[in-house]
């Protein structure tokens, strides 16, 4: 056994070095940087276009200065309660031009300098609102008109409050249930993303060995199970290097942000922050090894790069299915679906990491990791047998075995 | 006391689909010997070697290798050069040798230092730090061969080791095989070139169409065919042909025929009495090549007849 582990380590070492000590690895390592740059450039462009459109959006009130002051004061108070980015369009007051105010309001929709989404006129006696596409602006104007009318009727001067309310900030010492579930889902998504990006590489690794004929050397010297394990561990080492590099950068970036310490205290998984972090790493390893061993086994059967490319689609679907199952489980903790996702070996790491955020018990995780390790070894063993049978053509065929069994029974 | 063989197999059978690649092969390789497996392409040599090493399992039959029926458990005591040469192109020569040693349990550092020595002995010391992809095909093949012996195995299995090597490297390889035998290793190699087998092998097996046609020493193999007489008469009269054995054929003004079971004495006396005389006479032991062609030729005829029957 220890000899086989030593042999697996030799193969893992070779694969790790052969992958890391290449210029291509640098490209691989920095690939997220390119993604970030493209996302930033694209996002900035899209935001600029969206902002330029938003800047032109207007809600208009046709009212004289006396009445308009009430509306503007109400707008100032209510607008302040909207989170950044989702506030209604900017409010603009226009003096009544005399004549029919409805005509003036309708004419505003044809102005080329601004995009009018809703117009309020006739305040305070007969207020009316005309709006374009989407009623959200009209709803907001209605709220302003109602608030302004109440202030005016109650004799409250514009901008003043009726009662002073004392406010006190309360610092929570524990995360909310929703916060823990969000953290669990975020961890699940991160794990899925990492395995999607990294575990898929294992699919082509045996094709390389078949191409350069080294598989015969390996198969002669080492049990195929050790070859599979070595390949898997070697590539997992590469993945771990990738995660460690970007993980360190991410932690440094977060710590450099002002107020990050307080924000981090909000990340309060039920099992504790450090155990949760350790579990996330363990489940990443398990997820990678489980899915990687499946991909390795499937890829080992491919005889050309074209076949491997064709395999990448079902492999991605398989990963998506596991993610979907685990996500559904995370949304319904304690349900039978959640239990199934936690027990099904290939979704278990994802489902269990989410569980760690909301369940304080440690033993289910220890049991789950042992269960997943068992399945890693089962998958590797089955993959090696499949390779031996399907590619190396070792031993009698299944039909020959059945025939021999049948003959034995008859005899 | 009998010394158990380094490797033995009984009634090995292997089918690939409906094709029987190996059909009941028996082999016994004595310890410390050089053993050759001869056969034409597609005879089943490689499949036999792969079964013996445990790379694939036979459909039926038994095998024992270095005292175990599970070849895998002895893998650290075995060196193997496969027919299809394979190395990582990005690896340096000495690293490739050390890697192959490490797979067989040799520590990396020890593997590297042995690799340097082996490369130097093989005249490839200058290429120790060259990547495999920079080496010629023959050099790369030699590097792989050194990788298969770097851990000083008890049993060395070489599948067609001479193919792809130039005459100089073939000579080097022959010397290397003899040196490994002198070290105490058992060497088993396959080839379809008779010269190497004849010069190197203590014993050999001839396989054709998946069947063992012969197993024994080179001398015994040659003894399976009668000696040939090359006779040149002084008087080449018409009556001479009637005196000679029925298989005599004319060749370069003389006759070639198998020495009769009864020996040459009576025939020579008759030739002298009849006045044909003896201008030249030589007796030659058939070569391994003759034995091989005889065995493989028969097999080929059988196969052709069988195919003809199937077609009919």
From TrEMBL, chain A:
Domain of life: Bacteria
Organism in which the protein naturally occurs: Parasphingopyxis lamellibrachiae
Membrane topology reported for the UniProt record: Multi-pass membrane protein
Domain ABC-2 type transporter transmembrane: from-to ranges: 160-369
Chief localisation class: membrane
GO CC, alphabetical: membrane
Transmembrane segments: 16-41, 183-207, 228-256, 276-298, 310-331, 366-387
Record-linked InterPro entries: ABC2_TM
UniProt KW Transmembrane helix keyword: yes
An annotated Gene Ontology molecular function: ABC-type transporter activity
Keywords: Membrane, Transmembrane, Transmembrane helix
Pfam assignment, any one: ABC2_membrane_3
Name of this protein: ABC-2 type transport system permease protein
Keyword Transmembrane helix in record: yes
Subcellular location: Membrane
TrEMBL record, chain B:
Residues annotated as domain ABC transporter: 7-234
Top-level taxon in the UniProt lineage: Bacteria
Record protein name field: ABC-2 type transport system ATP-binding protein
Alphabetized UniProt keyword annotations: ATP-binding, Nucleotide-binding, Transport
PROSITE patterns: ABC_TRANSPORTER_2
InterPro entries, A to Z: AAA+_ATPase (IPR003593), ABC_transporter-like_ATP-bd (IPR003439), ABC_transporter_ATP-binding (IPR050763), P-loop_NTPase (IPR027417)
Molecular function in Gene Ontology: ATP binding; ATP hydrolysis activity
């Amino acid at each position: 056994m220890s000899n086989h582990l030593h042999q697996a380590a030799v193969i893992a070492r070779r694969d790790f070095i052969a992958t890391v000590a290449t210029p291509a690895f640098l490209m691989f390592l920095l690939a997220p940087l390119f993604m970030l740059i493209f996302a930033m450039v694209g996002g900035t462009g899209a935001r600029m276009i969206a902002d330029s459109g938003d800047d032109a959006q207007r809600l208009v009130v046709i009212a004289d200065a006396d009445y308009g002051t009430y509306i503007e004061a109400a707008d100032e108070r209510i607008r302040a309660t909207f989170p950044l980015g989702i506030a209604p369009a900017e409010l603009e007051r226009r003096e009544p031009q005399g004549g029919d105010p409805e005509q003036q309001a309708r004419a505003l929709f044809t102005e080329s300098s601004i995009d009018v989404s809703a117009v309020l006129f006739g305040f305070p006696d007969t207020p009316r609102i005309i709006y374009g596409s989407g009623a959200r602006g009209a709803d907001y104007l209605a709220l302003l008109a109602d608030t302004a009318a109440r202030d005016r009727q109650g004799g409250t001067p514009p901008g003043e409050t009726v009662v002073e309310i004392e406010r006190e900030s309360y610092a929570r010492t524990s995360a909310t249930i929703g916060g823990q579930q969000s953290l669990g889902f975020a961890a699940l998504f991160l794990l899925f993303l990492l395995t999607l990006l990294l575990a898929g590489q294992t699919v082509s690794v045996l094709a390389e060995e078949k191409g350069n004929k080294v598989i015969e050397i390996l198969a002669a010297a080492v049990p195929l199970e050790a070859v599979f394990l070595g390949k898997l561990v070697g590539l997992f080492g590469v993945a771990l290097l990738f995660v460690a590099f970007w993980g360190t950068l991410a932690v440094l970036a977060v710590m450099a942000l002002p107020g990050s310490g307080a924000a981090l205290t909000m990340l309060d998984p039920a099992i504790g922050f450090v155990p949760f972090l350790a579990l996330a790493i363990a489940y990443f390893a398990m997820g990678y090894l489980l899915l990687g061993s499946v991909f390795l086994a499937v890829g080992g059967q491919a005889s050309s790069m074209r076949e491997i490319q064709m395999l990448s689609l079902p492999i991605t679907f398989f990963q998506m299915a596991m993610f979907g199952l685990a996500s559904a489980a995370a949304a319904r903790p304690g349900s039978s679906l959640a239990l199934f996702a936690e027990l099904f070996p290939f979704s278990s790491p994802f489902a269990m990491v989410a569980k760690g955020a909301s369940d304080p018990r440690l033993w289910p995780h220890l049991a789950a990791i042992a269960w997943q390790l068992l399945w890693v070894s089962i998958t590797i063993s089955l993959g090696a047998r499949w390779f031996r049978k399907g590619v190396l053509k070792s031993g009698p065929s299944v039909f020959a075995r059945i025939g021999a069994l049948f003959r034995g029974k008859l005899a | 006391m009998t010394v158990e063989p380094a490797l033995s197999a009984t009634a090995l059978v292997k089918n690939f689909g409906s094709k029987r690649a190996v059909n009941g092969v028996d082999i016994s390789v004595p310890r410390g010997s050089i053993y050759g497996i001869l056969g034409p392409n597609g005879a089943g040599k490689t499949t036999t070697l792969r079964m013996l090493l445990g790379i694939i399992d036979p459909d039926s039959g038994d095998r024992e290798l270095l005292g175990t029926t599970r070849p895998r458990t002895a893998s650290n005591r075995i060196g193997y050069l496969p027919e299809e040469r394979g190395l990582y192109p990005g690896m340096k020569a000495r690293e490739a040798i050390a890697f192959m040693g490490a797979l067989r349990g040799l520590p990396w550092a020890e593997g590297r230092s042995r690799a340097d020595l082996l490369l130097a002995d093989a005249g490839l010391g200058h290429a120790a730090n060259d990547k495999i992809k920079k080496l010629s095909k023959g050099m790369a093949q030699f590097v792989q061969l050194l990788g298969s012996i770097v851990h000083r195995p008890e049993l060395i299995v070489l599948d067609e080791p001479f193919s792809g090597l130039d005459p100089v490297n073939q000579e080097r390889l022959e010397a290397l095989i003899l040196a490994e035998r002198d070290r105490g290793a058992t060497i088993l190699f396959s080839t379809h070139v008779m010269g190497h087998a004849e010069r190197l092998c203590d014993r050999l097996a001839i396989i054709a169409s998946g069947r063992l046609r012969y197993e024994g020493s080179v001398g015994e193999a040659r003894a399976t065919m009668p000696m040939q007489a090359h006779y040149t008469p002084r008087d080449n009269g018409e009556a001479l042909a009637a005196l000679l054995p029925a298989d005599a054929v004319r060749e370069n003004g003389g006759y070639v025929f198998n020495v009769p079971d009864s020996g040459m004495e009576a025939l020579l006396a008759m030739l002298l009495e009849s006045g044909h005389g003896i201008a030249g006479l030589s007796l030659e032991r058939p070569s391994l090549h003759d034995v091989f062609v005889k065995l493989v030729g028969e097999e080929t005829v059988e196969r052709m007849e069988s195919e003809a029957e199937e077609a009919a």
